[in-house]
User: What shape does this take?
Amino acid sequence: MDIFDEVAEDLRNEKAISLAKRYGGLLLLGCVAVLAGVAAQEGWQAWQAKRDSKAAQQYLTLTAPLDQMNAPPPAAQAEKAAAALSTFAATAPEGYKTLANMRAAALYADAGKLPQAEALWTGVAQDSAADPLLRDAATLIWAQHALGAVPDADVLAKLQPLALSNNPYHAMARELQALAYLHQGNVAQAKALLTQISMDGTSPSGVRQRAQALLASLNG
Assistant: This one.
């Protein structure tokens, strides 16, 4: 497993934790306060619950076969599943729209269709209605795939807000920044970031260990 695979695994773990906390039940039930009257409020809640329950079932129907596989699906199957998820996302409630687009992007990447994947990750990252954790995760995954393919300055700029200490993903953002600096040939800046990660007790252990190993390699 190379360093990019390990970064992707950490991102998947972070996403799984955040999704478990934020999307374990029905979504988007907070708007009922704007409705006047108990009857109207109850009717709105019932409509939302029915809509979200239907969306959840549709999402699970599309993703369950993929979740049961022990390896990424063949390219043709991955592309077909991604297209189905994108179609679902077009009319899905906001939370499920974001999840479906994130999953579709990963499937397009598995199928070798990086332009389609990157377009979806960028769309999620720019969606002001999407959960901030998922927006940031989309930026991180985009950056992982963009390294070496787009100008390093663009990657660094998009990662900068995520690299702030108050962002839950700051260690992984700094790791990707360090890799971008290495690609630029800016070894000193890469070392500075890797040192920050290795000394940051809030960094995930995998990220910290990779930073320490890369530092050791750079220091000879």
